[in-house]
């Protein structure tokens, strides 16, 4: 495939999420991005124009492009996370559009979990609201690498520089409080298209890039060579007699997707939880052998020794300091209507391993308005809390703040099978004083 | 696809999508008992099958493939299907809409299209095969109800999709747990677009049924679409037959799948055409999706693909 562009992000995927409060114009923004990047095709636009006319609207309602369900169109609201796809000459975008009202935490957590960047929208007339803080807090918890603050409806304040700068400065204060590093802001009018794709002539005082330019040029995250190698084993590939090629009857490889880092043929590795050491002798794909592979490639590793490895084990750098544990401490975003109380039995799903667990302790709930922990007897829908879980078998759980892939877990209802919570592993404090100190800062 | 690794150890978008799809296949095969893959010979199912074969290489595909046959097939697509089954040594299950019409379990619709009639044979085949995971080639960019679909999507014992009560899907931790009688639909191509599919077909040199490329065909115009003249799609007296150079962007029930005029004889030509098109593939070629604003959502709720 020939690359269209030689920029550092050329030919790569950017996963973005959008969040905002009700009526901040988020669906309009998404519609505008799709429309102005020419990702809306003529028949889709015709349909939107027709419906806008039937509803008696004076202008084309771009929000209709994104509200996919019948109930959403009827009620004029967005219910569930929707995924959109658009591409420019520079980059391809996967956009998780997260509705801002009911279940906003659930939706923002879902969208943020895979996002490289969160576009957070506010109405310039309302400024930074409690919900803006909450969305930002969730993005900070989920470790979304970049935050773009889109200050919308700038046309409704006559493109006033001072108003924009006040809102952007307020936001920066909140971001700093939450420890969010990479924040960029841009004044936009989603309705009229100012600074969405092209820079607006109505904001001559703004010299930065348009929203789309900014997203196109976001630098890629670091080289995986800077990360520790982590490879959760998905399954063993052993064709035996079923091999279609007789040369593969004896084949045995461990298939998985590299969670972080780089692996090379000849690398010494440890297999956890038991900690046995061995050497990588082959990195296979259906397209041939590789000398080196890196996150997030899906590959199959062959190892030197006849070690008995099964799904759920972790292959890691030989010199990595990893320990398996049956006690896991973590922050959980509670996503279920059923409350969580200490003593609840759950399934703990982490990388490729699922084990039984009991929630032993609930250390409290995070007050997203003040970003401080408060005591709690239970967690209910949309709460974020800190828990200690006892597991039936050891897992190699790493701090989520150092690894999004090996630090993330789900809690699942053992009976119903439903997903109860999104979890992020935090280190277990060594002594009670440390817990106290850390509690002050356990959100970030 | 080694050539598509970029400086600084980053994957090209196609390699990243491929890796994600392979991960999904391996997760589901590990966590579920009896998967099956829906294979129609259409380009999306062909790409899905190609990815599945890669996921388990050098072992053979660890599940059968299922074709829900409308009986309104393009002959070259059936030939292609059978050749692929032979080439890859697959186990093929065919659920025939015609059988249901013959014994009265389903009635032919007044408009003659059979796409909506596929739901019952599909659900019965899932029940009869005791399948708990059904891989489908649906993409979120295809249609606005599909944009709301999860990668792993629960279906109740009636095969129904409840779009308002879906499980949140976090990180790459998929939750396919379900109760007896329920199953999950799995969409490994969720994040692929039509253009990604074609670029991948070009890069991987994947063979497709010939009707995806420009060819001469006798067609007639109905409801703004060019329909092929065939056993199940006969022109009415006011629908003159024309011979045109056409190709298909989607492949389905021959009686309601339209062709587009095209000079794209090769995959490279198709790439240029798809990149420049101003009409969605379903808008251009599927009469059944044009019926109402929520046609796809309504079909999906009762168990359609």
Write structural notes for this entry.
The complex is a heterodimer of chains A (444) and B (305). Chain A has helices spanning 26-36, 42-54, 70-75, 104-113, 130-141, 161-177, 211-216, 432-439, and strands at residues 13-20, 82-87, 92-97, 117-123, 146-152, 183-187, 230-232, 235-237, 253-257, 262-264, 268-272, 276-285, 288-290, 292-294, 298-303, 314-317, 325-334, 345-350, 353-367, 372-374, 384-395, 408-412, 419-426. Chain A is α+β, with helices and mostly antiparallel strands. The longest helix of chain A has 17 residues, at 161-177. Chain B has two domains: 2-196 and 294-301, Rossmann fold (3-Layer(aba) Sandwich); 208-290, no CATH class. Chain B has helices at residues 13-31, 43-56, 75-88, 97-102, 119-128, 194-204, 267-276, 281-285, 295-301; strands at 5-6, 10-11, 35-38, 65-69, 92-96, 133-135, 152-155, 183-186, 215-222, 225-228, 242-247, 260-261. In chain B, helix 1 (13-31) packs across helix 2 (43-56) and helix 6 packs antiparallel against helix 7 (267-276). The mean pLDDT of chain B is 89. The interface between A and B is large, with 83 and 73 residues.
Task: List key phrases describing it.
heterodimer; A: alpha+beta; Rossmann fold; Elongation Factor Tu (Ef-tu), domain 3; eight-stranded antiparallel beta sheet; 23 strands; B: 305 residues; alpha/beta; 2 domains; six-stranded mixed beta sheet; 9 helices; 12 strands; 31% helix
